[in-house]
Specification:
The chain has 233 residues and is of the alpha/beta class. The protein has a single domain (16-228), classed as Rossmann fold. It has 8 helices and 7 strands. It has helices at 3-8, 16-25, 49-58, 72-83, 124-134, 148-157, 173-184, 201-214; strands spanning 62-66, 89-94, 141-145, 162-167, 187-195, 219-221, 224-228. It has a 7-stranded mixed sheet with strand order 3-2-1-4-5-7-6, sandwiched between helices. It is globular, with a radius of gyration of 18 Å. It comes from Teichococcus deserti. Pfam families: Methyltransf_24.
């Protein structure tokens, strides 16, 4: 409940994210949660100006962020929503298990340690949830701990549509192409799909092939790539 609502004794209005949580989980998943870890918003290309511009342009009610790591891009989307006085929700899709490159113990940057393994299980979900709580974003962010494939099926079954979708899960050709196809189906008419990591050869190939497949112009603002869904006529 907000401070204003508490002061007046009036019930707080349910936010779009809280409504989504009820549909997905039947509860507020943040209820009773206390951050276990200090804030850590490690990320890559997470605050790219393209993302903020698209929020201002599209004015999304729902954003789906696919591949969120510790939540830096999710937090940036929320900041852009707040700046534009938009009440939108961000659905954060990730397995929270890390990607193949994070499991490379030979990397010089020691990214493997960021997985925070506990008896072999990564602790990224708890880092993500702690970050959202530290930032006070519990009423905007809905984490969905699933593969992108499962998440797309779940959201489609609930008839969720998003006006802005960010694809940033894989770097290999086939999974990127699959994600683009799956989440394009969840994109509302007039919405925008934006991807990351265009300099990766597999990502560029998938983006170019998918753009040709749907007959839409591919716009590249490195490292982001953008596809717009036409309005229904």
């Amino acid at each position: 409940m907000s401070d204003a609502a508490a002061a007046t004794g009036t019930p707080a209005q349910e936010t779009p994210a809280q409504a989504l949580m009820q549909r997905l989980f039947g509860e507020d998943l943040y209820a009773g949660f206390t951050p276990e870890l200090p804030q850590d918003l490690q990320g890559w290309n997470s605050t790219h100006p393209t993302l903020a511009r698209l929020v201002q342009e599209v004015k999304p009610k729902t954003i789906i962020d696919v591949g969120v790591w510790k939540g830096a891009s999710v937090a940036f989307f929320c900041k852009a929503l707040q700046k534009n006085a938009l009440p939108g929700a961000v659905i954060a899709v990730d397995t929270f298990l890390g990607s193949p490159e994070h499991w490379n113990r030979e990397r010089q940057d020691n990214i493997f340690a960021s997985l925070r393994l506990r008896h072999g299980m990564p602790g990224l979900y708890w880092q993500f949830l702690s970050n959202m709580a530290h930032l006070g974003l519990q009423d905007r962010v809905v984490p969905l701990a699933q593969t992108s494939e499962n998440a797309a099926v779940i959201l489609q079954r609930l008839r969720v549509k998003a006006e802005l979708i960010h694809i940033d899960a894989a770097h290999e050709y086939e999974p990127v192409l699959r994600d683009a196809r799956r989440f394009w189906a969840l994109l509302a008419p007039g919405g925008v799909l934006v991807g990351d990591d265009f300099p990766w050869p597999g990502v560029a190939k998938a983006a170019q092939e998918f753009a040709a497949e749907i007959g839409q112009e591919l716009v590249v603002e490195n490292p982001k790539w953008i596809l717009r869904k036409p309005l229904k006529r």
